[in-house]
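Our preliminary data section would be incomplete without showing what the modeling component actually yields. Below, a chain of 359 amino acids is followed by its predicted structure, encoded as tokens that our downstream tools consume directly.
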Amino acid sequence: MAPAASAMGTILDNLAQSRSEKNDHLLAEVNTQRDQLVKILSDIPIATILVSADHQIVLYDGQAAALMERVRTARLKTSVFDYLEKTSILKALEQLEITHAHRQKITVKALCGRDYSGHIREFGTDAGYTLLLEPIEPSVVRPLTYDFEILSSAASASLGDTPLRDLVYVVFDCETTGLDPVKDEVVQLGAVRVVNGKVVAGEVFETLANPGISIPKRSTEIHGIDNTMIADAPEFDEVCTKFHGFASGAVFVAHNAAFDMAFLHKQSPKINCIFDHPVLDTVLMSAVVFGGSAVHTLDAICDRLGIVIPQDHRHTAMGDAVATAGVLVAMIDIFEGRGIRTFGSLQNEISKHRRILKT
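Predicted structure:
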């Protein structure tokens, strides 16, 4: 019996390994085909926007990105009506329902005032639709941006009830002239968007900013930005206004968030925009995961989570934003494993550790 059992075990192990190798091969084949399809779609000279039934953007190509960015930054999981006037789209969808057709011509006006002609294609009741519009820059080269999980995500009754993975995050970092938000100013701002627990490649915000004051040498030694580099950079008022649009509808995430938020709040009266976004601080999130007595510097957290920050990216706004986004994504997995699945439950845990860190 023992040899037979051993032989059967070997057979089962070999079968499992064979299936695993077959699955790996099939997965690699699917990924190759997907990459080829994405490349083909990226070269089609039509602006393509896939939209969910609740009008959230699921996919856009390079042509669509160029169209959208005449209004504001192109973003996934954002209402298509932030870019295109809704009346003509809703009217076309209503007409498709009446006629039981799947496709018809449409002319739609962008919020910048420009008209675009093309077609709208519906995928059935509550299944979403695609806008296929004439390109504005036929030679534009930009990868396809998409996340099909948006099609199946359901809206929550409140922010507190929303699963952490369903939230849209803008992870950002500021480099400054010094450490006093009252006296000092921002010289660089970098941010990335995280949608459905993944960093969205291409959806970034990065710019130098003219602080209006001289950058001290000791600050330049840290972030590498000197006065010559910011001489022609936009003032922070202009940067803040654009960043407010980029971050619309998102949860802010930053390391030592109170510091970075102080610079945004200081600018609010000057630009008539309020940064009233929900905010998560990776220092406090780290305390929830690793305990209040652990070291909670960005470098220490990244080391624990296996996130590598290239040396030449450290203490740059975008480099630190990307690293912080990596921390956020990794921690969402950890929180879910611990049963902390919603924004409200995470806030409850953070409030406990905030008191511990203050004592």
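Residues 222 and 315 are 7 Å apart (CA to CA). Residues 2-43 form the longest helix (42 residues). Preliminary results of this kind motivate Aim 1 of the renewal.
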